[in-house]
Amino acid sequence: MEVSRRNFLKISGVGVAATTLGLNLDPVEAKAQELAIQHAKETTTICPYCSVGCGMIVHTQGDNVINVEGDPDHPINEGALCPKGSSVYQLRDNKARITKPMYRAAGAAAWQEVTWEWALDQIARKTKATRDASFVPTSKIKVKEKVAGVEVEKEIEAEVNRTMGIASVGSAALDNEECYLYQKFLRGLGLVYIEHQARI
Ligand code: SF4
């Protein structure tokens, strides 16, 4: 419903009047909320945004999400959600949401839609080319060792098998097992710059 300035003042006036008269509107609001979801399907899920992992209840009617709220039975958040979690329905119902991979060529101003097959193939090719061009098998490092009881520092050529040409950022949406596999994959490629957006 579009709220005009006149309607807004009327609604505010009712609220102020109710408060002035000492009326508690909380039960009315709670009842209105209850009515909206009483015939909806209830599904429990976990917030995908960060590793706190808050429990949620999603109410749906047909294909439509009509309400999302914190799950009071969940031991982590006990019904509470942060603003980000409370707006999670926007992940699905959002006109600005991009649902297909997009590509902007170097120097181009416009993005173009591409297929997942093409995008994944390009990522694999560029990762391989960058790794091959930047791979460093050995590097000089300083180590300490004892010679005749005295600690001395010396430089040695050590095997490092790393690439400084690729970095990774993310992701808070991954669970423990996914993080383990992702980390293993990146270390296997020789990445050193492995970051997480929660630290930025
Ligand atoms: S983003 Fe907010 S609601 Fe979602 S898991 Fe993290 S703290 Fe919980």
In CATH's first tier, which class of the largest domain applies? Alpha Beta
Low-confidence stretches: none
Widest sheet: strand ordering: 1-2-3
Give the fraction of residues assigned to helices: 25-40%
Report mean pLDDT, rounded to a whole number: 87
Bound molecules: iron/sulfur cluster
Element order: H for helix, E for strand: HHEEEHEEHEEHE
Summarize the main sheet: 3 strands, antiparallel
Content of β-strand: 25-35%
Radius of gyration equals: 27 Å
- CATH architectural arrangement of the largest domain: 3-Layer(aba) Sandwich
The assigned structural class equals alpha+beta
Tell me the total number of β-strands: 8
How many domains make up the coordinates? Answer: 3
- Reported by name, the CATH topology of the largest domain is Rossmann fold
Silhouette: elongated
Number of helices: 5
Distance between the termini: 39 Å
Task: Give a description of the structure.
The chain has three domains: 1-34, no CATH class; 36-95, 2-Layer Sandwich (Phosphorylase Kinase, domain 1); 105-199, Rossmann fold (3-Layer(aba) Sandwich). It has five helices and eight strands. It has helices at 5-20, 26-37, 83-86, 116-134, 176-189, and strands at 41-46, 55-61, 64-70, 102-103, 112-113, 135-147, 150-169, 191-195. The strands form three sheets. A three-stranded antiparallel beta sheet has the order 1-2-3, with no helix packed on it. Strand 6 and strand 7 form a beta hairpin. The model has no long low-confidence stretch (mean pLDDT 87). It binds iron/sulfur cluster (SF4).
